[in-house]
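Design job #97: recover the sequence.
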């Protein structure tokens, strides 16, 4: 069984890491999400989530981040080891149903991983 935790070593936590991914990473777009990917040379994938005030109030932004963290826990195998992922949430994502939101996350992740393999 796959371990479904989200330990600190699998999180992007520093501003420096986020800025580096935004400046040097591959970008993949969907209607409600932007995915940034960059190699980290490590043994596991690291994930960070960004939701600006345009998404909604603090309660809404935190709910969106919880949904994305839950998706990560359940689909860890979809995230390539040795890469950093930053998921930027656009306004309107919160209006999606859970099924549609998960589908959008899976689709953008598949597109992003395909671009990583081309490099």
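Job complete. Output follows.
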């Amino acid at each position: 069984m796959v371990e479904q935790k989200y330990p600190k070593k699998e999180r992007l936590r520093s501003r420096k890491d986020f800025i580096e991914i935004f400046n040097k990473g591959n970008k993949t777009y969907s209607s409600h999400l932007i995915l940034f990917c960059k190699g980290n040379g490590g043994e596991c994938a690291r994930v960070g989530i960004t939701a600006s005030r345009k998404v909604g109030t603090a309660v809404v932004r935190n709910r969106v981040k919880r949904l994305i963290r839950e998706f990560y826990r359940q689909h860890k195998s979809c995230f390539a080891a040795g890469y950093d992922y930053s998921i930027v949430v656009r306004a309107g994502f919160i209006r999606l149903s859970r099924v549609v939101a998960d589908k959008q996350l899976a689709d953008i992740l598949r597109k992003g991983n395909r671009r990583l393999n081309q490099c």
